[in-house]
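mind reviewing both lines:
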Amino acid sequence: MNKSGYFPVSYKGVFLTCLVALILGGCASKAPQLPSATLIQPYTTSPSDYTYLIGPGDSVQIFVWRNPEVSNTVLVRPDGKITAPLVEELAASGKTPAQLARDIEKVLSEYIKEPIVTVMVGGFVGPYSEQIRIIGEATNPQAIPYRENMTLLDVMIAVGGITEFAAGNKATIVRIVGDQQKEYRVKLNKLIRDGDIAANADMLPGDILIIPESFF
């Protein structure tokens, strides 16, 4: 166990490994295969440099100074783009609000002299690459938006803990670092049943928490 609360792990259950492979890259079989997904490196690699990025489903309020007729609130479409007055098919997903504001200014500058744009975000879904996914024997397996300085304990609270069938101390975090997939062992039973805060660990955007089932 290192100072961040992780245990490097080499154990790979067949079922859960295939499930993660389907999420990140594909699981081999004799059946025809879809093209493998590309490993996507999350933008945030340290809790200290986290900045929220816009994602599909977020609400974007566009305020154009002195131009209320082109100010509007729009939703980011499933394809990650927005459409607003005088702005068509503009990519928004994966950008900070400030970056999106500057892009909108470039588009509006064709129609408005020196536009000044402010973007405010609501909904806070974020792009998939920044979400934390919890699979296996969680009470409510789901994908949740990353929050600044989120820890393993915060994730457990969000999903309602683990089921009675969970092998909590055999849980693993799968993390993409560069172009490599790494796995870390975490001790959920110690954390949420024994109250051992030393078993807590930092989470990062894009992490996948796998909670296997106990067979004993």
